[in-house]
Amino acid sequence: MIYTVGICDDEKSTCAELENIIIDLFKKMKDDVDIQVWNSAESFMEDVPSKVKVDILFLDIQLPALNGVDVGNYIRQGCNNEAMHIIYISSNQSYAMELFSIHPYEFLIKPIDKDRLCNIIKKLFQLNEQDKRFFMYGFNKQQYRVLIGDILYFRSDKKNIHIVFLNSSQHYVGKLKDEINKLPPDNFVMISQSYIINLRHIKACKLDSVIMENGETLKIIRKYRNDFNLKMIEYNKVKR
Hints:
Number of strands: 15
Strand order of the largest sheet: 2-1-3-4-5
Order of helices and strands: EHEHEHEHEHEEEEEHEEEEEH
Shape: elongated
Strand content: 25-35%
Number of helices: 7
Helix content: 25-40%
Distance between the termini: 24 Å
Radius of gyration: 19 Å
Structural class: alpha/beta
């Protein structure tokens, strides 16, 4: 799998420094990386998501004209993208509250600490390990596989199970209660007899429901809430 890492910073020296660190790290990990660099918010927004899909974005807050907060809001709200990992970089630490709603993965202070940057990427790799695995299912005597990380949720409809992605869905015959044991326990949880959801694709949580990345609101039935809450606590620990 080739990872696309984006760097959006108006300081060319910072971009070059980040590029070198990232290239060296990926060589050591024996993984492929495609690095894309932008020096302004406007140029980034022209390319993403129409021309480039970014997995990890190193984003400067203090950009000319539109700033990093504007770019973060564009990614989360304009593109409806909660999956992109945003790592803010700045010499100023006073933006914490403005960044809260954007859900950045991390915040790096300039000058860049190489060891900390490498540890952040390695932790992201641990989170993304699930995305490299496939979920297998059969339909009409044929076998299919889909990336587990792309699945938002499973929905049961009588004898059919629908696998729902961000912009599409697939279905097959089966029982939902049998599928939960085939899925990574850290990422997936049952919230009713009809739904299994991927914690990575939750956009917002309420007391008795979740809003998924595609905008759909799913009800958490009372008997499943305790298990859901425990899974969310463990999931957030891993993210840290």
